[in-house]
Amino acid sequence: MSKYDTLHINDFTEPELQYFRDMCNFSDEELICFNLRAKNKTIVQIALEMSCSEPKVSKLIKRVKTKIKRIL
What we know:
The protein is mostly helical. The chain has a domain at 28-72. It is 65% helix and 0% strand. It has four helices and no strands.
């Protein structure tokens, strides 16, 4: 098990979050999802705010975490 397996976006500091925004090349959808997750929003809350399904949000979170892991 890697130390990044339990990665929680809302655990990072604001300077770290900004670093990820700058370096991860997030798509527009990924960035919205990342920012909402950083505010500790649930998958259901993000799905409602983004007007998409919960499985779609889960996929976005997975892609975001993959990009973060690549630069860590």
